[in-house]
Specification:
Layout: H1 2-11, H2 16-22, H3 25-66, H4 72-79, H5 86-100, H6 112-132, H7 135-167, H8 172-230
């Protein structure tokens, strides 16, 4: 009997695809959800690494141009009022409001400093939204995927016990497939959650640094314009 049971267990296909097809519908649905969440998370991670690298590169180039000593009006004419980079957009929003704050005769309209600050703040908010888009999904996957996988495991074990009760057989050949399918759901939950948590923390820190750079530039630029307003 033991030899027969061992032979049946050895004939079982325990590949990932076989475990998926043998699983119950609920466990299959859990596995599909976790697999999709994992691929989506990696897509966000790769996209964020690329966009953050571009943002840092763009900010570095603009900083060199801004602090090169070139007159601000000439720099503004070069990049235009609708540039692509976030740093350039913050600068352009301040310059546009600066020019709008002057009447035709050159007289300055009251409240110019506050309007310039608000314009740059709006540009920073838009840049922040672009940088952080997708990060909440990583946080959600990181916090919920293990529990979704655990649900799949619990359901799979329940189905395995039902099969044991129906067959009246507790041999390895009966128990092992159901347990393996159930544990696969937990494994997929961890595979989805662990990278999501790690890279959410990493990307959140990177985005905070980039945003802090934008805010620091806006403060410096506002200080420069404030001197001209006071002068």
């Amino acid at each position: 009997m033991e030899t027969e049971t061992l032979a049946m267990a050895q004939e079982m296909d325990f590949s990932l695809l076989a475990l998926f097809w043998r699983a119950s519908f609920v466990v299959q649905l859990v596995m599909i959800m976790l697999t999709v969440a994992s691929f989506w998370s990696w897509a966000i991670i790769v996209q964020k690494f690329i966009s953050y690298r571009q943002a840092r590169h763009e900010a570095s180039i603009f900083d060199r141009a801004f602090w090169s000593g070139e007159p601000l009006d000439e720099l503004f004419e070069k990049i235009g009022s609708q540039p692509d980079g976030a740093s350039e957009k913050i600068f352009a929003s301040g310059m546009v409001e600066w020019r709008r704050s002057h009447r035709e005769g050159g007289e300055l309209i009251a409240g110019a400093q506050a309007r310039i600050d608000r314009s740059m703040d709006v540009a920073i908010v838009k840049a922040t939204e672009n940088l952080t888009r997708g990060l909440p999904f990583l946080a959600t996957v990181g916090s919920t995927a293990p529990f979704v996988g655990l649900f799949g495991t619990v359901w799979g074990i329940k189905v395995a016990f039902e099969q044991i009760a129906i067959s009246q057989n507790t041999s390895l050949a009966v128990v092992a497939p159901g347990i393996a399918e159930a544990l696969l759901a937990t494994a997929l939950g961890l595979v989805a959650a662990i990278p999501a948590v790690i890279f959410y923390n990493k990307l959140s820190t990177d985005s905070d640094r980039i945003i802090s750079g934008y805010e620091a530039f806006a403060d410096e630029f506002a200080t420069i314009l404030s001197r001209q307003l006071d002068g």
